[in-house]
Amino acid sequence: MARNGWAAALGVLGLGVLGVALLPGLAVAQGAAPSLTMAVGAPVTSLDPHYHQLSPNNAVADMIFDGLVNRSARDQGIPGLATSWRAVDATTWEFKLREGVRFHNGNAFTAEDVAFTLNRVPRVPNSPSSFALYTRPITAVEIVDAHTIRLKTAVPYPLMPTDIANLRIIDKETAEHATTEDFNAGRAAQGTGPWRVVDHRNGERIEFARNEQYWGGAPAFGRVTYRMITNDAARTAALLAGDVDFIDQVPTADLARLRREQRVVLSETIGLRIIFLGLDHSRSGATPFVTDNDGRPIEPNPLKDVRVRRALTLAIDRHAIADRVMEGAATPSGQFLPPGSFGHVPGLEAPRANLEEARRLLAEAGFPNGFRITLHSPNDRYINDARISQAIGQMWTRAGVRTNVDAQTWATFVGRAARQELSSWLIGWGSSGGEASNPLRNLVATVSREKGWGASNRGHYSNPGVDALIDRAMVELDDPRREGLLREATSMAMADVGIIPLHIQTNIWAMRRGLQHEARADELTRAQDIRPAAR
Amino acid sequence: MTVFLLRRLLQASGVVLAMTLLVFLGVYAVGDPVEILISPEADQLERERAIKALGLDLPLWRQYLVFLGNALQGDLGRSFVFNEPALRLIFDRMPATLELALGATFLALLIGLPLGLFAGLRPNALRSRIIMAGSILGFSLPTFWVGLMLIMVFAVQCGWLPSTGRGETVTILGMRWSFLTWDGLAHMAMPMLSLSLSRIGLVIRLTRSGVRENMVMDYVKFARAKGLSPNRIVFVHVFRNILIPVVTVMGLELGGTIAFSVVTESVFAWPGMGKLIIDSINVLDRPVIVAYLMMIVMLFITINLLVDLSYSVLDPRVRLESRE
């Protein structure tokens, strides 16, 4: 009996330990001070605002620093550390600087800091993606007085205020000898922005305290904890558990549930990221992933025929994708930018699906029985990317183009796309600055190293008419005239189906009831956009 | 003993060298880090500058030689993403992973050994059958599912435990530890449990079969005949014998737990090395991947060595030299 006794006791001990591990009552009480805990899905890699041109880093840089020009929720330029700016002559921009602004460490902000920043930007060591392309057009910096600075360019440069908004101003005295590591440690991260860095744990969390002296008025919360929770389900759970007050990148699969949830409110707006299909325009001969129905290569490349491209775009039911695959979190589009953006073409709607017309165009182009194609796609980059590709594969197949979908991880996919190994692929583009010259120059302008155009034009689309219009727009200082040129270029590229636009993503945030948030088109998640809700 | 250690060390360096070569070739085959890291807006000039800045403009064999040269001087390179020494990044995250892995192993032994002993000594009791069925569940449930279920039940529904993150930490020897604060322990509880679940199952099964095997052996009969108390037989003689397989398996499992608790760490946003390595692989941050795997190889070799040494303590018949 004794033996049974201790054996049972051992069992109880084991189960008991299991029980203790699950003991209730360990929850942490919230402090009484008005503080905010946010969780973001993409890790911030550095607090150095000039080290890595990456959205999560830019969001945090916006909290600590200011640009001369800041960006509104719709990504339009608004006064930041500059109160006004104008083109003094064709090749000179003048910025009037805000007076009485101080950095977090008490140093006064002057034109010297601007000149220092512009000088540092192209010289950050080891930067994997620098901001140098925004300072490259500047040929000379002239400090007129402590609060006026002039930037000279070689040719008229209308994009100066748009470009300069990417550059956050740092304190010369603090940063003169500072390295990226000094910024990451918080020592050098002394900005003029609404939040001061208190603590930074790389890839885990950043603690902020409010800048009481902020020139735009002190923010609503005393402290902010900016946590990084990369797993989608865990981030949603953290909000539902009350561990965090606010999350970004709400997964579309959770949308329906969160809309019903009483404790949670959503904030959403149409973004600036277009999801589109790229096509191989570079090969006149056979393109690697297009064959006839018997698997033989087709010459010449059918994708060079505008009738084929039109058929492919007409075969896609964009509304079905937006409603069913994206759960409503997307707006079908027939151009780069959403309504209200600079260069959006009014009346250029998303093409309506028309299978008959698609089949007719294919037959006219010499493919009455269609052909075979492989559509490549990333599967971990854009919202529901692989599922969108599968839907398109079915739609194309229905129109007679038998489609095989090959979805891969971004790391593999992007290299293949860059090496031009693909024939058709799904990809996205976020138009920073919210104006049309950005997608035009990068996605459909003829690839040119001298001009710096077409670096992301992986299909090597080329249309001299479009190029000429962009050329003219790039030196046109008159805004209405420039917008007219950009609209014309967009219409021309879209009529020629240089790319196949699908939809523009909706940006969605979720927060506990009692907060309100100004949703941003550029996807940046920043604490200054959040306030306690008005009762 | 010295010869044994020296030979092990030599083997280790060979493995590390082969591994670095594999990682270099592997990352090269997967894709181009610059394409992933660069801002899509960057023009051709900026791309060329970035390739040069990261040292990727050299042919692969020269990149590898540069790496080897620096590694011999103790410099394993700087992360492409963080611009910080790769080793420092890893060591920053190491305490979080170590405490989780050791905690999970400790929990597995604490729960698994008694339950396994019980099930082994009374194999036909109903409770034993329940324990064994539970152990199957323990290692067959997928970790991410268990993790999310724990979060849903204990954090979202009941609100007893914090859902994610590390909580309050105490700094000792320049490293941050969670297990010394109440808040830290609360944050550790769920990831630790979800990580240990499959190991608990394993320990239960190993212990049970060990006990059943040993209880019928001659030495136990002899001890009984000699009139030793059942407690002494089980805890001194049998226990020692069943510990050998448990130590071996748990030792190897510990290596795996430290190196690859990726899933648990990302579900619970636990800022450990596993999360660092998966993020690094996603962006092909080669210096971090290489440094990490080098460290892991060393870790496995060390653990295997410790396991071998502990054999000789547990079982005097085992001689190190003869174990080849």
Mean pLDDT of chain A: 91
Structural class of chain A: alpha+beta
> What is the CATH architecture annotation of the domain at 272-505 in chain A?
Roll
Counting DSSP H or I runs of 4 or more residues, the number of helices of chain A is 17
The most extensive interface, with participating residues per chain, is:
A-B, 79 and 81 residues
Strand percentage of chain B, roughly? under 5%
Poorly predicted segments of chain A? 1-32
Gyration radius over CA of chain B: 24 Å
Tally of contiguous helical segments of chain B: 13
Kindly state the mean pLDDT of chain B as a whole number? 86
Series of H and E elements of chain B: HHHHHHHEEHHHHHH
Distance between the termini of chain B: 13 Å
Low-confidence stretches of chain B: none
- Structural class category of chain B: mainly alpha
Proportion of helical residues of chain A: 25-40%
What kind of oligomer do you see? heterodimer
CATH class of the domain at 272-505 in chain A: Alpha Beta
How would you explain this protein's 3D organization?
The complex is a heterodimer of chains A (535) and B (324). Chain A has 535 residues and is α+β, with helices and mostly antiparallel strands. Among the domains of chain A are: 65-179, Dipeptide-binding Protein, domain 1 (Alpha-Beta Complex), CATH 3.90.76.10; 272-505, Dipeptide-binding Protein, domain 3, CATH 3.10.105. Helix content of chain A is 30%, strand content 23%. Chain A has helices spanning 2-21, 55-64, 111-120, 132-135, 160-164, 172-175, 180-184, 232-240, 252-260, 306-314, 318-325, 355-364, 385-398, 410-418, 437-444, 464-474, 479-495, and strands at residues 35-40, 69-71, 77-79, 82-89, 92-97, 138-145, 148-153, 195-201, 205-210, 223-228, 246-247, 264-279, 290-291, 330-332, 372-378, 402-408, 424-430, 500-512, 515-517, 530-532. In chain A, strands 1, 8, 9, 10, 11, 12, 13, 14, 15, 16, 17 and 18 form a 12-stranded mixed sheet that branches. A 4-stranded antiparallel sheet of chain A has the order 4-5-7-6, with helices on one face. Chain A has a two-stranded antiparallel ribbon with strand order 2-3. In chain A, helix 15 (437-444) runs antiparallel to helix 16 (464-474). The longest helix of chain A is centred in the first third of the chain and has 20 residues, at 2-21. Chain A is globular. With 324 residues, chain B is mainly alpha-helical. Chain B has a two-stranded antiparallel ribbon with strand order 1-2. In chain B, strand 1 and strand 2 form a beta hairpin. In chain B, helix 1 runs antiparallel to helix 13, helix 6 packs across helix 8 and helix 8 (182-215) packs across helix 10 (230-260). Chains A and B meet through helix 1, helix 7, helix 8 and helix 14 of A and helix 2, helix 3, helix 5, helix 7 and helix 8 of B.
